[in-house]
Design goal:
Largest interface: A-B, 26 and 24 residues
Oligomer: heterodimer
Largest sheet of chain B: 6 strands, mixed
Distance between the termini of chain B: 36 Å
Shape of chain B: globular
Radius of gyration of chain A: 13 Å
Structural class of chain A: mainly beta
Largest sheet of chain A: 7 strands, mixed
Shape of chain A: globular
Number of strands of chain B: 11
Number of helices of chain A: 0
Number of helices of chain B: 0
Strand content of chain A: over 45%
Structural class of chain B: mainly beta
Number of strands of chain A: 11
Helix content of chain A: under 10%
Order of helices and strands of chain A: EEEEEEEEEEE
Strand content of chain B: over 45%
Radius of gyration of chain B: 13 Å
Distance between the termini of chain A: 34 Å
Helix content of chain B: under 10%
């Protein structure tokens, strides 16, 4: 009964390829997020969706495109992968966006670009 | 300078010791989160605070809004508490800004 799930857990690919990471939550939450954790373990927000609408879009290269087909899913597509994209990507969800809501994290996807 | 600063960066304790991790932030916030990341990589939310103090088992989190400071305490520490503890604040724009984490190692 995983609350927030991500696939794949590991992704190894070559520079220039296009890849997707999928995220699903079964908590009935309205808000979903993508975070990037770099090699120094520093977490940073990338995107946030609320009810399928893009709310937060940090200064992320436009090679990264989130897609939310419904409230329970937020997928991350990455085009023309670069070495610097290697990181762990975490999906998360919360009840809402504006309030003091706890966030629930997925297990992470370790992306390695060679 | 990061908006969220944690100290110490690394901490080693003997089993049973009392551990304190500090988090200072420089912006107005609506909430502060304490997260735990285990060596396997998963992230778990421990606390969310907007004022005062919360306790869960051996973990205690406090926040002083006026001083822009929060502490996470672990009482009677155990090797299974070994993890990275991350402070995150929710500020303008409703986004979380994270501290650099405190790596805690509890030795038996």
């Amino acid at each position: 009964d995983t609350a927030v799930s991500q696939t794949p857990k590991y992704l190894v690919t070559q520079m220039g390829n296009d890849k997707s990471i999928k995220c699903e939550q079964n908590l009935g939450h309205d808000t979903m997020y993508w975070y990037k954790q770099d090699s120094k373990k520093f977490l940073k927000i990338m995107f946030s969706y609320n009810n399928k609408e893009l709310i937060i879009n940090e200064t992320v290269p436009n090679r990264f495109s989130p897609k939310s087909p419904d409230k329970a899913h937020l997928n991350l597509h990455i085009n023309s992968l670069e070495l610097g994209d290697s990181a762990v990507y975490f999906c998360a969800s919360s009840t809402g966006l504006a309030g003091p809501y706890e966030q629930y994290f997925g297990p992470g996807t370790r992306l390695t670009v060679t | 300078k990061n908006e969220v600063e944690q100290s110490p960066q690394n901490l080693t304790a003997q089993e049973g010791e009392f551990i304190t991790i500090n988090c200072s932030y420089s912006v107005g916030i609506s909430a502060l989160h304490w997260l735990q990341q285990h060596p396997g990589g998963g992230i778990v939310s421990l606390f969310m605070l907007s004022s005062g103090k919360k306790k869960h088992g051996r973990l205690i989190a406090t926040i002083n809004i006026q001083e822009k400071h929060s502490s996470l305490h672990i009482t009677a520490s155990h090797p299974r508490d070994s993890a990275v503890y991350i402070c995150a604040v929710k500020a303008a724009g409703n986004k979380l800004t994270f501290g650099g984490g405190t790596r805690v190692l509890v030795k038996p």
